[in-house]
Design a protein that fits this description.
The complex is a heterotrimer of chains A (348), B (315) and C (333). Chain A contains eleven helices and twelve strands. With 348 residues, chain A is of the alpha/beta class. Chain A has three domains: 49 residues; 139 residues, Rossmann fold (3-Layer(aba) Sandwich); 133 residues, Rossmann fold (3-Layer(aba) Sandwich). In chain A, strand 8, helix 9 and strand 9 form a beta-alpha-beta unit. The chains are: A alpha/beta (348), B mainly alpha (315), C mainly alpha (333). The interface between A and B is large, with 57 and 60 residues.
Chain lengths: 348, 315, 333
């Protein structure tokens, strides 16, 4: 059916006078060009309606550049709560950008936010070392920068007014403590890490490994494998590790519960779930259920909502010129099957 | 003169699209029409422009290189990590590394006659491994402050990085238009068998273009390193390669080879740069930001195809 | 080789089979390379050839293998489909989120419909409007990913009560000791081999990819063939997304990220020519299998992951080189 229509059209075009055909093509191109422009105007006008915060009427304008919204539920919830908090705070508006995991993009975004003349900026660094020059740029422009969720390199401390977020390195340490306790200080462990090269993944991995090395000589880390925060990949990697090490595996450390559930799928199929100790560096809703069922022995409670609220709160203070303490860690308590009733099931 | 300009604009409609975007955004977006913002767009385009430059050579030649993203990441790491041996050594080794990877790609494509897609996809993954081996999975920070300051400096009021890219583009356009290598590149991209029969050194030209592509990707890596004064293992991954090809196609260089030039690529580069800048200035939510990028890509080939047809009918 | 057995009539059966095997070893370095890779890993790791691990690898490659069938057809008609990774994510998310609302069967049908629509859209743009498939499907890769994120709002989706539905059987179940995803893949391989080798459509696919001008003169509508190829690719990717969803009983936004490259690499590794007109679904599957084996094997050997990537570079290029070199009988072209 379709073919016929197109063929008829083409035959008509061929029969057409050549000049007319040319004219038709030119027209089509012109129409398309206009279309693109109209699209541009449309999007611009649409977005312009949303953004009228530039006028200096006492509204505070906050800029935010996130790490990679949508890659996991934590970051998504963070983004959502960040937006809600801004919407519910009177006299505060925000430009919220997302670096999509690309540090070069993030630097461009910081430059754009400087250009926009925001009153304060929150940066969730894609990489703690590479954003330092951009943070310095903001500092030079007189814009207070608050680093959120993951720390930047020490060389950048002097250009930031503060840090608000969890201590992801400590989370790794806490998971290590849980592992040592559950294994009684000896055994063989495999690690499923996040996306290699990303600061949260690195911190959680190093916090775990450093603590194990320093405090539990009886525990060997057999393998550390990346999962890219991807559950399907976590399952595959765990399957392969089970083939390699089999019953030798006494414990599995996972960078977060999404990865953990992926690993657990493989353990369940091999009939090893429950016998193998699993500890996690960040608790998600499904991980809470798995702990209830006895599959996860230790985890860390980190609330993206609190993370986001702390970020906004600190940024508003800084924008108003108030003094803020440099360290604004929020609590990331350890959750075990014994004390889990004290915690609400995470909604992400 | 004006007529000539009109004709070349008609040939390269990307500039019209760009102009339209700039005019509209200047009217409607506060903060867009300012020197500071343009300077931002220029400096942000510098690195992508370097990658697109080498890719243009290859695509006119009828090939493409999927490894540019990780080559950029690897050479950025070298340019930072080798600074203890002096800046000169670091930069030279980084550029050499890019050229060597380009030469390896070129060897397999031009000499062993293996499909370019699989060859460069292989090095895309392999070089990613090299990055992690070299950096030990960590971000590296430069200790030569001047290098970072260079990345942030200006030349005649324009960002230095952009000026470097622009000068290299001028040279590249000259090479393409006026040298035998340029003519060979077009000829091979247009019809490889006819070129072979005409006695053009086909293998050597293809090989050389892969080296050029590796070299410019490395130059992009060095520029990026000076902009960050640091290098992370994730630079250039996962989609820098495809986006670079998209920039070149957006400019109007044909994927089939034999047709295109650097001026077009510059137009494609600016269009992407301005689009990205607009989306950021407006604070468009990132999911929609992504969606718009996808739609623009599809629209652009749609327009491009019609222009191509038009061009054929003009002769 | 299996398909020869099934399809040829009994009298010819033996000779066809023998001839094919002889041809394969003489002309196709791929098979040789495959056995070299297998031999290497089975010597280096005692676990590698254990039945359990073999089944594991087969199941691990079954999702990519399913997508690869469609990709082989698309590449055979002379095009690319870069959208498969994002489409896997989308269909997995759709089937999981719909499961608890409308039940397993309608959810699967909706996911397949999504795959068909995406395939038809690409097929229309590439086949009928003659647009460049690389950039169109790159646009779809980006666009579909955005649609996934908008659809889920960036959150994870999951089946609330995984134990109360039979849906998990597709991805997790076994039939006669063989994982169901592997059986599904096997059936699909057979069906599409028959289609490609024994039907008019199949002949037209090779003809359009191999010699577009000639096929036009012989009255084949290449538009229709290209369109159909992309629809098939969308359909099979949806099947892969369903298997993936059932395997995990949950879905996340970037589930299929990077699949397009793995699948294309595997298909080319299997000797499918990127210039079109040449393609064999079983060989494409062997290509995918080699990539799966590399991942599994290197992990069994205990290499750090980044060495695996470098090794993949060397081996993939090496295998293709061996394949190309044996075909033409010369090391350099």
């Amino acid at each position: 059916m379709q073919t016929d229509i197109v063929d008829i059209y083409e035959k008509a075009a061929v029969q057409m006078h050549p000049q007319k055909k040319e004219w038709l093509m030119k027209k089509t191109v012109n129409v398309l060009l206009v279309l693109v422009m109209v699209l541009c105007v449309g999007s611009v006008a649409f977005a312009n309606g949303q953004q009228e915060a530039d006028v200096d009427d006492g509204t505070i304008l906050i800029g935010h550049t996130a790490n990679n919204t949508g890659i996991d539920s934590y970051q998504t919830t963070h983004d959502k709560v960040y937006r809600d908090t801004i919407a519910n705070t009177e006299g505060v508006e925000a430009i919220i950008l997302d670096a999509k995991g690309d540090v070069a993009k993030q630097i461009s975004q910081i430059e754009t936010l400087i250009q926009k003349g925001v009153d304060a900026m929150t940066v969730w660094p894609v990489n703690g070392k590479a954003v330092v020059p951009a943070v310095k740029k903001a500092f030079d422009a007189g814009i207070p920068v608050i680093i959120v969720n993951s720390l930047i390199d020490e060389s950048g401390y002097e250009y930031a007014v503060g840090f608000a977020g969890p201590n992801t390195y400590t989370e790794g340490e806490n998971a290590a403590k849980g592992m040592i306790k559950a294994l009684d200080g000896k055994g063989d462990v495999v690690e499923l890490m996040g996306l290699p090269g990303y600061v949260t993944a690195i911190n959680r991995s190093e916090g775990f490994q450093d603590y194990i090395k320093a405090n539990a000589p009886g525990i060997t880390i057999l393998a550390t494998e990346p999962t890219d925060w991807n559950r399907a990949k976590a399952t595959q990697v765990m399957e392969n590790l089970i083939v390699k090490y089999g019953d030798q595996i006494d414990g599995v450390y996972v960078a977060d519960d999404n990865v953990g559930i992926g690993g657990l799928n493989a353990l369940k199929e091999a009939g090893m779930a429950g016998d193998v100790v699993m500890t996690s560096a960040c608790m998600f809703g499904e991980g809470y259920d798995a702990m209830e069922e006895g599959y996860i022995m230790g985890s860390v409670y980190q609330s993206p909502a609190e993370d986001a609220r702390k970020a906004v709160e600190t940024a508003i203070k800084a924008a108003k010129g108030e003094e803020v303490p440099f360290w604004n860690y929020f609590e990331t308590p350890v959750v075990t099957p014994d004390n889990m009733k004290d915690f609400e099931r995470p909604n992400f | 003169m004006i007529q000539k300009l009109v004709i070349s604009l008609k040939k390269q409609p990307i500039w019209l699209i760009l102009l339209g975007m700039i005019v509209l955004s200047s009217v409607f977006i506060p903060g867009f029409l300012s020197f500071g913002n343009f300077s931002n767009v220029l400096v942000q385009s510098a690195v992508d422009g370097m990658l697109a430059l080498g890719m243009t050579f290859l695509m006119i030649n009828g090939y493409f290189d999927l490894s540019v993203g990780t080559v950029m990441g690897f050479t950025a790491a070298l340019a930072i990590g080798l600074q203890p041996y002096g800046l000169f050594v670091a930069v030279v080794v980084a550029l050499l590394a890019g050229a060597v990877i380009g030469a390896i790609n070129g060897f397999f494509v031009a000499k062993a006659k293996i499909n370019a897609f699989i060859v460069t996809l292989g090095s895309f993954i392999g070089v990613r491994g090299l990055i992690y081996i070299y950096t030990g999975e960590q971000a590296l920070v430069g200790d030569i402050m001047e290098f970072g300051m260079f990345g942030a400096s200006s030349f005649l009021g324009l960002p230095t990085l952009f000026v470097i890219m622009f000068v290299l583009m001028l040279i590249a356009e000259f090479v393409l238009r006026k040298t035998p290598h340029g003519r060979y590149t077009y000829s091979i991209g247009g019809n490889i068998e006819a070129s072979e029969n005409a006695g053009i050194p086909v293998d050597r030209t293809i090989w050389l273009n892969f080296i050029i592509c590796g070299l410019t990707a490395a130059a992009g890596g060095v520029l990026l390193a000076s902009r960050l004064n640091a290098a992370t293992p994730t630079l250039g991954w996962p989609d820098k390669n495809l986006m670079t090809i998209a920039v070149v196609v957006l400019g109007g260089t044909s994927l089939a080879g034999g047709y295109g030039n650097i001026t077009r690529t510059l137009g494609g580069l600016f269009t992407f740069g301005v689009l990205y800048n607009i989306l950021n200035l407006l604070g468009v939510q990132s999911y929609y930001n992504t969606l718009i990028t996808g739609i623009v890509l599809i629209l652009v080939v749609y327009i491009d195809a019609h222009i191509r047809k038009n061009k054929v009918s003009i002769g | 080789m299996q398909q020869a057995e099934l399809m040829a009539n009994p009298a010819e059966q033996r000779t066809t089979l023998m001839r094919r095997i002889a041809k394969a070893t003489e002309k196709h370095g791929l098979i040789v390379a495959f056995f070299i890779v297998v031999a290497f890993f089975s010597i280096a790791s005692e676990n590698f050839l254990s039945p359990k691990n073999v089944m594991l690898v087969l199941r691990q490659v079954s999702i990519l293998g399913t997508i690869a069938i469609g990709m082989t057809i698309v590449i055979t008609v002379g095009h690319f489909d870069l959208s498969v990774g994002s489409l896997t994510s989308l269909t997995a998310v759709v089937v999981i989120s719909m499961h608890d609302i409308v039940g397993p069967v309608p959810a699967m049908l909706i996911a397949i419909l999504v795959g068909l629509i995406s395939g038809a859209f690409i097929g229309y743009l590439v086949g009928y409007l003659r647009l460049n498939s690389l950039i169109i499907t790159l646009g779809m890769l980006v666009g579909l990913q955005a649609i996934v994120l908008i659809y889920t709002g960036g959150k994870y989706t999951r089946i609330v009560a995984p134990d109360e539905t039979w849906f998990g059987f597709i991805g997790r179940g076994f039939l006669f000791g063989v994982p169901l995803p592997v059986i599904i893949l096997g059936v699909l391989l057979l069906i599409f081999s028959v289609i490609l080798l024994k039907t008019v459509f199949g002949r037209q696919v090779f003809s359009v990819g191999g010699n577009p001008t000639a096929s036009k003169f012989s009255g084949i509508s290449d538009r229709k063939i290209i369109f159909t190829a992309f629809v098939i690719s969308g359909f099979l990717t949806a099947i892969a997304g369903i298997i993936m969803g059932s395997r995990l009983m949950a879905a996340q936004n970037y589930l299929g990220q990077g699949y397009e490259f793995e699948v294309i690499a595997g298909v080319i590794l299997g000797g499918v020519s990127l210039s079109g007109g040449e393609g064999n679904i079983f060989k494409a599957f062997i290509g995918i299998l080699i990539i799966g084996i590399l991942k599994n094997g290197f992990l069994l050997l205990g290499f750090p992951y980044y060495f695996q990537w470098v090794a993949q570079w060397v081996i993939v290029v090496g295998v293709v080189w061996l394949d190309v070199a044996t075909k033409r009988g010369k090391v350099l072209g």
